[in-house]
Write a structure and sequence with these properties.
105 residues, mainly alpha, rod-shaped
Length: 105
């Protein structure tokens, strides 16, 4: 199984000048994955140390930007509803905020 820590391990082994085939055998990942990360790391203009200072999430996002899509944990706000409710007597922003929080649970 390919995960975020594998990207870091591949980068570390690439830094030691191992071949794609050796890395794929050691880590049990495909040679295409190793080649992709090699190509990305070669195109990276920073130093190896800068590349390795990234977190696992940042490395994975950098290597696979199309697969790493963080999810939004918030519901969209219905501003028309908020304005309509705020025009009512006794409705406050705090009450609407608490209602929104309950809805998001």
């Amino acid at each position: 199984m390919f995960n975020k820590t594998k990207v870091r391990q591949i980068v570390e082994l690439l830094q030691k000048n191992l071949s794609d085939r050796e890395i794929s055998n050691v880590l049990e990942v495909s040679r295409n994955s190793v080649a992709r990360i090699r190509q990305i790391s070669d195109s990276y203009n920073g130093e190896w140390e800068d590349f390795l200072m990234m977190t696992d999430d940042e490395l994975y996002c950098f290597s696979y930007p199309d697969k790493f899509k963080p999810k939004c944990s918030y519901d969209p706000v219905d501003y028309a509803y908020v304005h309509k409710e705020l025009s009512k007597v006794g409705v406050t922003e705090i009450l609407l905020w608490e209602e929104y929080c309950e809805k998001c649970k």
